[in-house]
Amino acid sequence: ITSDLAEVDRVIRLRLDSPVVLISTIADYIIGAGGKRLRPVLLLLFARALGYGHSEAHQRRGHHWLLAAVVEFIHTATPLHDDVGDESTLRRGRPTANAEFG
């Protein structure tokens, strides 16, 4: 599902694009932190198991990529919110977005 994950990353970057430089910078910082993308992987695997994503029509619509991006947004927002509330300075050995950008 490497190509599917590349499409999910494309959707994430597209949806986080902003003319506000700080928003784009923070989005790149958070996305660049990496991670396994386990939740989007599971969604994509379930979609395939249920027959979605194989046809050209499914690929054109890309609903499975969009939903996988939504799952990743929700997952990413939770620790970001926690880091701001807790005033955490590190997450996974890197400065948090809150610590890096205030």
Summarize the structure.
With 102 residues, the chain is mainly alpha-helical. The chain has helices at 2-16, 21-31, 38-49, 56-61, 63-86, 97-101; strands at residues 90-91, 94-95.
Q: Can you characterise this structure?
A:
With 102 residues, the chain is mainly α. It has helices spanning 2-16, 21-31, 38-49, 56-61, 63-86, 97-101, and strands spanning 90-91, 94-95. A two-stranded antiparallel ribbon has the order 1-2. Helix 3 (38-49) runs antiparallel to helix 5 (63-86). The longest helix has 24 residues, at 63-86. The model has no long low-confidence stretch (mean pLDDT 81).
Supply database-style keywords.
102 residues; mainly alpha; two-stranded antiparallel sheet; 6 helices; elongated
Give the helices and strands, then pairings.
Layout: H1 2-16, H2 21-31, H3 38-49, H4 56-61, H5 63-86, E1 90-91, E2 94-95, H6 97-101
Helix pairs in contact: 1-5, 3-5
Sequence stretches where pLDDT stays below 50 over 5 or more residues: none
Q: Give the proportion of residues in helices.
A: over 70%
Structural class: mainly alpha
Amount of beta strand: under 5%
Average pLDDT for all residues = 81
The SSE string, one letter per element, is HHHHHEEH
Biggest sheet features: 2 strands, antiparallel
Calculate Rg over CA atoms: 15 Å
Tell me the number of helical segments per DSSP (H or I, 4 or more residues long).
6
Alpha-carbon distance between the two ends:
36 Å
What coarse outline follows from CA principal-axis ratios? elongated
Strand runs, count:
2
Strand order of the largest sheet: 1-2
